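Project standup — Tuesday

K.O.: blocked on the structure for the chain from last sprint. Re-posting the sequence here as requested.
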Amino acid sequence: MRGSTTITGILTSVVLATMTIAVFSRNQFNGPEGALRRFVLAVAKGDHAKAIEAGANEAGPVLDQLAAEVFLNLRARGVYEVVEILGEGDRRIAVVDVRFPPNRVDRTLWALGKVGRRWYVDVVGSARLRGWPV
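H.V.: unblocked you, prediction finished:
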């Protein structure tokens, strides 16, 4: 019984990661979209260290809460799609639709920042956009 649960979990993770990759493959890998892509893929793979890295090493409860949001959306077969990037310079806001079958769409906002040449998810900024206490 336990073996079938493990296999089901692995297969679910592979399907979620594949769906996420399919959506993000249309977007840039290194631009602001890439930061969100790295974060979502890290959560899909259960790689907490990579999620922290995609969040500019901002480990803690706020990052965990964002990761939990993404995990629950992926588990509900949500697919992330960057609709628009707002702003200029090293600070941006990503407007993201999370599409759920058959036809529900939740719009989310993500704060993104840039250090050097690398974009990252601004964990605290994203939490503030959601109205979470930080």
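K.O.: great, moving the ticket to review. Helices lie at 2-24, 32-45, 48-54, 61-75, 123-129. The two ends are 42 Å apart (CA to CA).
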